[in-house]
Amino acid sequence: MNNSKKTNIKFVPIFAMLLLILNQILTYSVTPPNSGGQPMRYLLYWLMFLISSIGTNLIVLYLGFTSRQTKNSIKKLSKIYFYLICIGLFGVIFSVVAFKSFASQDLWLLLFPISHNDFPLASSILLWYVFGSLISKYIHKLSQTTMNSILLFIPWLFIFMPFLFGKQLWSIDSGNSFVWVGILFLLGILFGEENILSKIRSKSKIITLVIILLALPLLLKISPLSVPAANLHSRLYSNYSLPMFFISIIIFSLFISFKTIKYSKHKIIKSLPINWLFLSAYFFTQLPTIAYRLSNDLHLKYKISSVKWLLQILIIFLSVVITVFILTFIIEKLSHLAKINKTINNLSISYSDLNRTPYLIKEIFINNWRSLFVILIGLFLTYIQILSVYILTESPFKMSFLKDVITTSSQQILLSTIIFYLFFVLIFGIFNRYWYALIFSTGVFVIISVAEVLKISLRDEPILPADLSMITAMNELLKMVNPIVIIVALIFIIILFVSSILLEKRFNNIYNRSNWKKRVTFILIPLIVFSGSFFINHNNSLPKIVFKAFGVQPLFYDQTGGARVNGPVIQFINNIDTKIMNKPAGYSKKNIEKIMKKYDNSAKNINKTRKSSLSNQTIIFTLSESFSDPNRVPNLKVSPNPIPYLTKLKKQTSSGLMLSSGYGGGTANMEWQSLTGLSLSNLSPTLPTPYTQLVPSQKISPAFTDLFDSKIAIHPFNASLYNRINVFKKFGFNKFYYDGSKYKLTYKKRIGSSPYISDESAYKNTLKIINQKHSGSRFIQLSTMQNHMPFTDYYPNAKSFKISGSAFSKDSKSSIETYSQGLNYTDKSLKKFITKINKIHKPVTIVWYGDHLASLYNKDSMSKYGIPLHETDYFIYNNQTKKITHSNKVVSPYSFSALALKADNIKVSPYYALITNVTEDLPAMTIDPTSSQSNSLNGSNIFVSENGKKIKSSSLTKKQKQLLHDYRLIQYDLTAGKQYSAHWAQQKIK
């Protein structure tokens, strides 16, 4: 006989909910204390954890106990799913609003809840709950003796025997196990039928419970725990162990035994869906996004006082409890709204429907085949697009490509399919014809695929928004394409057009056309979604958060690689939101002409004291990959000094520190600044990589190379990254030596097992070019690769440097040792290089600099040490004058051209008169290095003094502010404006 109506059993879900929430917080947000270091906190933590772990046991016992009262439990599956959707969406919204991120998995599990096993307990309970009333009815018919026998048999076989033998006899390895849930569910049914728990006196239960609870601390001392809570599997402590089973049964029986508590009859309290509270709490705390936040953003610090520790646990606990109560109340109210309630009822199934499962699946397919067909076509087209890029960029073809596309780009394929589907919906809203919309959408995506293949084949670059401006030059574009391709494309378009007409006529009557309200909705929703493309690179914007959730990597430094990983459509969208630069006040042709005239005069004044010209001069810009003195890194000591020669050389020549705009990356941005004289910090945050996002769209790209007769670039690596081949061509380089180019690198030696060509070989290649006969001025851009990440144990004697300090983690120590050895090799190679340069009987000037620090110092706070973690070494050396024009000067890369001309006492052109003024009269400007733990965004412009301190722009003098404004106007004109000053910036020195 079931006496649940006369007991406090209805409060079990609330109590179980509270225990579950506490258990999840202790699992995710708290690191288990050590029994030796914090004995009292250790006992308190594990006592709370073990007791709270029985919350899941109690709810299963409760469901079994009340199963006879639960009518048509299978019909509640649709409402359970409604709860999951609501709570899942709340989790996504919470993560987006509070933490500016979520994962596509958070949406996927709403459609396929059991696909990732995120809700193991719910999955185990489901079948027992659905068929609980049937099982309960069957057990009810059994005799008293049979039920008593089962009550003895189940605990003995499934609980006592595994405890005695210490083996998992029935594959019960967690409290979520289907077998364990079944045991508790059946016991709950039997407890509801028999009054066995009620027959035991409450006093005896309480005494037994107290004894077990007092024994737990003793057990914890005798057999201490040292595993993470999530990995706890023990016959003493797991919630499926004998002690925890006893505690669960005793507490459950106490709810049955005590007299009914009269609770408030207030309308809100009465309307609170008690039975749904545990479900809400379970779904909420098990959501991957919530579990992640509890584990990371809300994780308690280990070294805090016990009082503060308990207080923080209590605060998180109460916050989650309140959230669950509010969520449950709101969801329950929503479920009673007419339309939602009708949908829930329509989706509900009965036991009789199980016999009709094949027919139901068929009916679902028939009702939704058109949408499914669109999705399948979208998946297929996106897969083919990405595979095509793979084949073009990863030759020769391998069968593994077919699998690689799915394994590396599954999320991006899904996102592209969503974009395809929305595009179809938009076209369908316009035409109100299914086949017209489908064929048109398919045609557009096929054309994109073909255009992508052609563009990559011709330019080694995917389709970008800048290419749309070339539509006006369609005749010239078509001349570049094989006529056969054009003919095939035209035939394909005709076939699509005819097919759409025939299909529309043939299947015209198999679907209902939409009314005007639906059509407006079909048009508006995709347009609203697609408008997000214009904010895709805005920091913390919703479109950027969504793209990040689907694993989209913009890869602006490697656009073709981006198309290979993300697909052509997504990579195109990545490049839509690229505002180049904010327009400075007063931008006009008239004002630009005034500035040009102003610095025409400035050039004349500077040149009065300059005696030399560029004729027969050789200037080398040497970018040394990841080079920076590690002993300048805060909280780090490397001994002996790995770069003794450079340390000495910097004292003998013009030298100082360069402000890098990157940390661990951004090489091309330093190149761009040094070659153009423009500052990255003036650009928009949506344009992080000028080489791929800016230079291709510029009609004219003024650069330092414009001043020279001969321009040569050397990069001892492949040139696929950063669009260097096309950029250097636009900058006027005559030759580009790289690994795989038609201009062969003579020296390609590597050190140890390093995959990168050594700096010694890079310098030898440079010397070979310097010694070649030539007339006139010459510029060489050398970008080395030896010290590029990762810093694996490449070198045979990397352990010769001792690393100490608190700037790095244990995992980084070996990498820093390898890195330091690499610097030492560079230092020795540099000494040989300078020695050879000194023997050359013609003027050679070297501007040598490190592009950024290696990202190895993960224990140093960027907010505290941002500036020193972005300072690299540089020097300017001339083999004939050896004159020191400055020392210990802090500069940015855009100043190197002006500093090189000054070091050689070379006259300047008007544009470089402007750069000279900016270099000499303004503090060095850069991106704010303290605004991010890695690479900061453009636009966060700061100034840095000679002693490495930030300077506010408001502290600049009136003259400095005017100079800065002139500089920004010219930069805007050259990059985002009308280019009134482009030819002026390109003119040679007179």
From TrEMBL:
Coiled coil: none annotated. Pfam families: Sulfatase. SUPFAM superfamilies: Alkaline phosphatase-like. This is Sulfatase N-terminal domain-containing protein. It is found in: Cell membrane. It is a multi-pass membrane protein. Residues 617-895 form the Sulfatase N-terminal domain. GO terms for cellular component: plasma membrane. The chain crosses the membrane at residues 43-65, 80-99, 119-139, 146-165, 177-194, 206-222, 242-261, 273-294, 309-331, 372-393, 413-431, 438-457, 477-498, 519-536. Gene3D superfamilies: Alkaline Phosphatase, subunit A. Keywords: Cell membrane, Membrane, Transmembrane, Transmembrane helix. Pathway: Cell wall biogenesis; lipoteichoic acid biosynthesis.
